[in-house]
Amino acid sequence: MNAALLNLLRRLVRKGNLTVFSSSGEQVILGDGSGKPATVRIVDAEAEKAIAVDPSLRFGELYMDGRAIIEHGDIFDVLSIAKVNGLEHAATVSNMLVALQHVLRQQVMSRMPVNRNRHNVAHHYDLDRKLFNLFLDQDWQYSCAYFEPPGISLDEAQLAKKRHITAKLLLEPGQKVLEIGSGWGGMAMYLAESSGVEVTGITLSEEQLKISRERAAKRGLSDRVRFELQDYRTVQGRQFDRIVSVGMFEHVGIGNYSRFFRKVRELLKPDGVMLLHSIGQVCKPWATNPWIEKYIFPGGYIPALSEVLPSVEKTQLLVKDVEILPMHYAWTLRAWRQRFLARREEVVKLFDERFFRMWEFYLAASEAAFLYDKHFIFQLQLSPSLEAVPFARGYIEAKERELIEFEKTRPPLEPVDI
């Protein structure tokens, strides 16, 4: 086995039960024997060198290419052992230099004036719609579900998420709502049907735009729910009673937070309310994992709250409520991953084996991040007005009870056309 890789593994893998076979057939058993065992075979000597130099990027690439093979357990088990031991933060001199290159490149790109948002969004969200139908819930909610009460199904948890957010928006019939990052239209349709509001949803994905318009027309909502292909920065000449953004803030980029909240303040009426739902981290990450940034979410960045709130404060928007959901995305990702694995043959037929392994790695790595890196969801409720939101949180639960009664009479959702 490559000497640098062997030294790295022996020095860092102290917990767990990991067996590694080198390209020469050498077997190395690592860890303290605890937990679920996993075995990795590295196919060639060049792969060993690549992992030793840049494990955070190259291991995922080699797994995609079939040059790092999981022979016992699965990729989630291997990544869990890596997370427990901090293996992706391996601190050799060469790794530190490579990591610094990743950080500098991402920090510079996040501050570039050239708008690549549409390109970045298309990279992920304009894939064949059949792919998302394989693992999402019936409403195609591609953000963290809300497993309250615990143990409910993915579909029930995604409905609970929409209900919880709607309750925090304090909607009144006839109000105008802006949804920044409208996905496949499910949230906008729920807001309109449950609360009698008019919703404008904006997206940078042409495929999401097409599907959203199809769904709204099918439900007879085209007069109250409109979708536009537009960047939030270009919305002009309008103000809204409410603004909601779910799972989009991760794509804004740390260099644009002040611009984002200034725009929210500009678009929100003086007594308006905004609900922002985003992934967060417990400390400043400085950069996204380079494999995720390259293959899954180019331009993405998951902030610490300490990086977000200063930009909110500069706009003099009042933080009316902060809620932290610490485990709900891990449960969501596990459900997605299990569904995705169960449809392997269909994914391979749509794309190929390499694509399947890429998305398996993405879902497994994301779940591991929420379990071991303590990623979480935060919901920020913002308003320019002191009195726009009640001074105690009881209204949220009361409104959720009302929405549950509405859901009993709501016509069932039609499957998304694929």
UniProtKB/TrEMBL annotation:
GO terms for biological process: lipid biosynthetic process; methylation. InterPro entries: CFA/CMAS, CMAS, SAM-dependent_MTases_sf. Keywords: Lipid metabolism, Methyltransferase, S-adenosyl-L-methionine, Transferase. GO terms for molecular function: methyltransferase activity. It comes from the Bacteria. Pfam families: CMAS. PANTHER family: CYCLOPROPANE-FATTY-ACYL-PHOSPHOLIPID SYNTHASE. This is Class I SAM-dependent methyltransferase. It comes from Ensifer oleiphilus. The lineage of its organism: Bacteria, Pseudomonadati, Pseudomonadota, Alphaproteobacteria, Hyphomicrobiales.
